[in-house]
Amino acid sequence: MTNATEFLWYIPNETEGGHRGDISGSDPFSLQTLTDHAVALEDHGWGGALIGTGWGRPDTFTVAAALTARTKTFEPLIAIRPGYWRPAHFASAAATLDELSGGRVRINIVSGQDKLAAYGDTEGDQAHRYDRTKDFMRLVRRLWTETDVTFRGEHFQVEASTASPRITPRGDRLHPKLYFGGASEAAERVAATEADVQLFWGEPLDGVADRIARLKRLSRDLDRDLPPLQFGLRITTLVRDTTEQAWADAEAKVDVMANQTRVDQHRSFKAVGQQRLLDLHARGEVLDDNLYTAPGRYGGGGAGTTWLVGSATEVASSLRKYRDLGITHFVLSDTPYLSEIGRQGDQLLPLLRDAPPLTAERIVAGDQVA
User: Fold this and answer.
1) How far apart are CA 333 and CA 176, in angstroms?
2) How far apart are the C-alpha atoms of 123 and 13, rounded to whole Å?
3) ∠ CA(327), CA(54), CA(131), 5° rounding?
4) What is residue 283's DSSP assignment?
């Protein structure tokens, strides 16, 4: 893989321990514990981490600000929600943290369901929700790159607005990247026109290839006026020293999940992207080379619904295949989070960085996808 490929981890951002079977100390949500994770990420070759969000969890932006102050290179991918933030307020806060951290901020825009009424938000149907997200992303980007912005949309309005401080351009980076997820038609239309990076969950290669092709078509059809959309993968990677140990540990984890969760009880969640993952188990328990679908039957959600399982060599081979489809942003994780930062940083990342991408020239020369 080339230097343009980026590797992030995941910080769950919860006050209680045990997230996805994590083994935590007595104080999982302390500044020292969180800092230990961020510093370990720096020490083991990771670019940063996605920080989870949702009402009832600690404020993501505050956590990100604290961790950037205690690190040197750690880049937080800060998950935020339109409605929890107003666009101008958020644009100013993000610009401030970006300037103070030396350009380390990344943003993940989340439009999925949440306890909106708990923090005073309301929304309509899916079309309304994603239309509001589109306006939010468009307005925030304008506030980062323009001055005296006037915007009069259905959902947000500002008059002669200039965010301060101004974001310092750093090479071709004019502002923090806006990551976005979602698999519905409404979500994909927002991604095609407004996102910098579209994040996918762990679908098989053919599904990811189809979605990349569809998003590229949408970008053309909807007259995208931004640089080309980039693509990312958010997935659990269960890496062990041997294939046998990896699968033994994966099956043991699923057995624990099965004993704790009634099969399919979590399927009431109807987000299109989540349902696509849940439906994969009907195609088989293992898809492609080592994409394990069983966790989704027993409560695995989001990036925990499917896992890439195997030795570092085998998981790297699978990730390279996603890279050859056009994925350049990887957000990986497994539990225990802290120890796996080191294991995967030391064993997995070197295999990914040492391998060149598959190019047309290599295909002609007879190279195969690793």
Assistant:
1) 23
2) 25
3) 65
4) G
Helix (H), strand (E) counts: the chain: 12, 13
Distance CA 58, CA 55 (A): 8
Q: Model confidence over 234-272: pLDDT tens digits?
A: 999 999 999 999 999 999 999 998 888 654 444 454 578
Using DSSP bridges, classify how beta strands 291-292 and 307-311 pair: parallel, antiparallel or unpaired.
antiparallel
Identify the helix (H) or strand (E) that includes residue 161. strand 157-161
- Whether 196 contacts 173, CB under 8 Å: no
Instruction: Tell me the pTM.
Output: 0.90
The single residue listed with the structure tokens 């190019």 is 359
Nearest CA-CA partner of 218 in 193, 245, 254: 193
For residue 81, which of 90, 69, 73, 92 has the smallest C-alpha distance? 90
Average pLDDT for 314-338: 97
User: Of all residues in the chain, what percent carry a pLDDT higher than 70?
Assistant: 89
Percent helix, strand, coil in the chain, to 5, is 45, 20, 35
Residue 74 Cα distances to 29, 39, 241, 334, 353, angstroms: 18, 8, 27, 19, 18
Place of tokens 């306006």: 135
Cβ 285 vs Cβ 292: under 8 Å: yes
Residues in the chain: 370
| Burial classification of residue 301, based on how many CB atoms lie within 10 Å of its CB (0-12 exposed, 13-18 middle, 19 or more buried) | middle
Cβ-Cβ contacts under 8 Å for 42 (sequence gap 6 or more): 71, 72, 73, 74
